[in-house]
Amino acid sequence: MPALLDPMFWLGQDGPFGAAVLIGVVVIIFIETGLLFPFLPGDTLLFTAGVIAAQAAPAVDIWTLTPCAAAAAFLGGQCAYLIGRRLGPALFKKSDARFFKQRYLTSSHEFFVKYGAKTLVIGQFIGVVRTFAPVVAGISGMPYRTLVIFSALGSAAWGVGLPLVGYFLGNIPFVEQHVELIVLAIACLSTIPVIISAARTLLSRGRLGDVSN
């Protein structure tokens, strides 16, 4: 696993936040969710932090970790939404722009009208989605009140749920002895929805191309 994606690189005894696990979790979660940087170990970081909290004389208390992680995810989502609201009009100003065409803005708005709430809650558990969904919500003009409600739900479920899973499994001998393997499995599982979505998109484009020909 690349160093940046390895939670123990950040939270291990010799890591940058080895002596300040709570600060490390909050900083990394906020950067991943709020500053458009999806290449950080959000899911595995929270699980590993929960495992650390389950150890004797832990570096972080689980009842402090969970609300702080949820708050960091929520605030990150607000930051990403504001970035989208700020940059969206400028990016889509020209109707004939090469990459940011206004029809993309229209389609993203229609998507968030139909599926925005579900995306903000369920997408919190999918790395790339939780990073960019609030940005696209801001670009497409999702009402801020709607964003706050469902972003709070998704952030609470993710920020509290994953550390608790790690915490309650942390004292199981198999988990203690195979943390790296379990972390790798979680990282792989979190990418499956993205791979499936990309495959469906490619298949649908292929079918459209066949019909047009």
TrEMBL record:
<keyword id="KW-1133">Transmembrane helix</keyword>
<protein>
    <submittedName>
        <fullName>VTT domain-containing protein</fullName>
    </submittedName>
</protein>
<comment type="similarity">
    <text>Belongs to the DedA family.</text>
</comment>
<keyword id="KW-0812">Transmembrane</keyword>
<dbReference type="Pfam" id="PF09335">
    <property type="entry name" value="VTT_dom"/>
</dbReference>
<feature type="transmembrane region" description="Helical">
    <location>
        <begin position="181"/>
        <end position="203"/>
    </location>
</feature>
<keyword id="KW-0472">Membrane</keyword>
<feature type="transmembrane region" description="Helical">
    <location>
        <begin position="20"/>
        <end position="40"/>
    </location>
</feature>
<keyword id="KW-1003">Cell membrane</keyword>
<feature type="transmembrane region" description="Helical">
    <location>
        <begin position="147"/>
        <end position="169"/>
    </location>
</feature>
<dbReference type="InterPro" id="IPR032818">
    <property type="entry name" value="DedA-like"/>
</dbReference>
<feature type="domain" description="VTT">
    <location>
        <begin position="40"/>
        <end position="167"/>
    </location>
</feature>
<dbReference type="InterPro" id="IPR032816">
    <property type="entry name" value="VTT_dom"/>
</dbReference>
